[in-house]
Amino acid sequence: MQCKPEMTLMTVKEAAQFLSISVSTLYGWAWQRRIPFVKVGRALRFDRIDLQEFVQAHRFEARP
After folding, report:
1. 49-54 contacts at long range (C-beta below 8 A, 24 or more positions apart)
2. What's CA 55's distance to the chain center, in Å?
3. What is the per-residue pLDDT across 7-58, written as a single tens digit (0 to 9) for each?
4. Which of 1, 12, 17, 59 has most Cβ atoms within 10 angstroms of its Cβ?
5. pTM, two decimal places
6. How far apart are CA 20 and CA 40, in angstroms?
7. DSSP code at position 33
8. Long-range contacts of 31-39 (CB under 8 A, 24+ apart)
9. What's the per-residue H, E or C state across 15-26?
10. Residue 7 CA from chain centroid, whole number
């Protein structure tokens, strides 16, 4: 397993605030495997870089 050297793990609450969504929505997305996450024991954690990539992948450009 490859580990990113600058990995910064965020809690569910921090990640939800970063994405401007509710905590329950974030749990749902993780359960559906729509968003990457890390399991630390029973807790979910989210890598800031993965979240930024998730946002970029779901970005729509404005129409001309």
Report:
1. 49/4, 49/6, 49/7, 49/8, 51/10, 51/15, 51/18, 51/19, 54/19
2. 9
3. 799 999 999 999 999 999 999 999 999 999 999 999 999 999 999 999 999 9
4. 12
5. 0.82
6. 23
7. T
8. 38/9
9. HHHHHCCCHHHH
10. 12
